[in-house]
Design goal:
CATH class: Alpha Beta
Radius of gyration: 17 Å
Structural class: alpha+beta
Oligomer: single chain
Order of helices and strands: HEHEEEHEE
CATH architecture: 2-Layer Sandwich
């Protein structure tokens, strides 16, 4: 069940959408464990986006006509996108351009191809980081979707 859960299907769709962005070289489901781990990537593998899915947070429950049994749940799936690039000359421009590309791609279809996804919001983290020669930013993507009580 977990391999085909709605949560997993959304995360796979996000990875596929991000892989279609020409400016990104690598899309992973695992965040680098720090600067030393980031140094293990070849220059050709950057810019890199790590897609880290959180567990969904139920926000609303829908019940049957009798009002005694919950049969549908609306949840918000939080996904952190950690974006890393090489740029020690104009890191702010690099971060801005990558965030712009990601923003445009993920909001082009807020349902990500699923009829049960209700919408997508992106919350940029106002903090960016620069560790010469790397720069980084993270984005919080919140995807609202409908599922039943049988799984996430």
């Amino acid at each position: 069940m977990a391999l085909n859960s709605k949560r997993e299907r959304i995360l796979v769709a996000l990875v596929t959408e991000l892989e279609a962005i020409a400016a990104l070289s690598t899309v992973n489901r695992i965040q680098p464990a720090g600067l030393s781990s980031l140094k293990g990537y070849a220059e050709t593998q950057l810019p890199l986006v790590a897609v880290c899915g959180q567990l969904p947070r139920p926000t609303q429950k829908r019940t049957t006509r009798t009002g005694h049994t919950v049969d549908k749940v609306i949840s918000v799936l939080g996904v952190r996108l950690f974006v890393y690039a090489l740029d020690n000359v104009t890191p702010d421009s690099t971060i801005s351009n990558l965030a712009d590309d990601i923003w445009a791609k993920l909001l082009a279809d807020e349902t990500h191809g699923f009829k049960w996804v209700l919408g997508t919001e992106i919350e940029p983290n106002i903090n960016t980081a620069v560790w010469d020669p790397y720069c980084a930013v993270n984005l919080q993507v919140n995807i609202e979707y409908l599922h039943d009580k049988g799984g996430i």
